[in-house]
Amino acid sequence: MPAAAPAQPVAERTPFFSRPGALLGAALVVGVVGGFLGGYLGQLAGSAGTAGSASATSSPTGTVDSPAGGSCNAETVAATVLPSIVTINVVSEAGGGVGTGSIIRDDGYILTNNHVVADAANGASIVVIFSNGQQIPATLVGRSPQADIAVVKVNADSKLPTVAIGDSDTVTVGQPVVALGAPLGLSGSVTAGIVSALGRDVPVPADDGTTAVLAGAIQTDAAINPGNSGGALVDCSGAQIGVNSAIATVPNASGVSGGGSVGIGFSVPVNLAITLAEQLIETGKVSYPYFGMQVVVIPAEVAAKFNTEPGLFVEGVAPGGPADAAGLQDGDIITALDGQPAIDAAVLTRIKLTKKVGDTVEIDYLRGAEPHSTTLTLSEAP
């Protein structure tokens, strides 16, 4: 019999490692998480020896080679970067979870994922564990659910070690990388691999019921698992180039996905993450460019039924807004934005995350059966 067609991979947030109970004394016992690695029991100790230990994945010589040439000494990278990587515990009456963050300012600002700390917006507490085992309460500075980025802050007695910030625009496919974090609650863990692809727009569910987009995400085969969320993806110099945020999993016969790393992980490019983090630090929120329209997705099967093109149906246009000024009207069907097919709402989210007020967006649309093009200038939201 012919082999069955392989199941399509499903992108999902790298869940922070959920666990029942609360932080007890110096040690956190991580409970079993069904659907991730059932039956696995890990212990996150608050002592300096355990919390600061590194579990490095590398070749016998301590280097990670890439098909494109070049290599990383994972041991050297780990020694350089781990002091600036923290484990983030979110604790509530219902339980909590474990994620990761990187210290981006020596006065205590820490970059992480929104889905790691979103519960703090509803009263959960945050405790940060440093590589030396020290535990300090943290506060939520601000978050961007749409980009899955957040910032928390601790008040430390002295300046903290910070991660070097790289340039994600210079990352190349095939270059070696190292991921650092707390997979399954195991602090100070290090994995290594290469950049598998660039420019992935990865839609993932947001905690507010909307869709977050990892815009222009870096794909890597460095092992990323639940608990790595918010951690650093770094280059061979130890400079952060991404925020580890999501993994792809293969659904089973019932369509249910789960499990750990299958070698397909996604990181928010650090250039975008830092831009958003700076806004959060300065104002506590992110201001997104404004389109001035409401749209509804027309799936391909619906478009075929009504003999039209798939795209974004313009349901409403704000008078005097950017869409109105660009000539768009209710009932138009947007087929492309900046040359990219408008097949889902995520394309709008990507543009809002990667463009700023005053930037322009080229729009292809249908009015009836007639194709048109226009240029929309993004503005500030009213």
Automatic annotation (TrEMBL):
Pfam families xrefs: PDZ_2, Trypsin_2
Membrane is among the record's keywords: yes
Residue spans crossing the bilayer: 21-41
Location of the PDZ domain: 280-369
Gene Ontology biological-process entries: proteolysis
Keywords, comma-separated and alphabetical: Hydrolase, Membrane, Protease, Transmembrane, Transmembrane helix
GO molecular function: serine-type endopeptidase activity
Domain of life: Bacteria
Family of this protein: Belongs to the peptidase S1C family.
Annotated protein name in UniProt: PDZ domain-containing protein
Naturally occurring in which organism (per UniProt): Microterricola viridarii
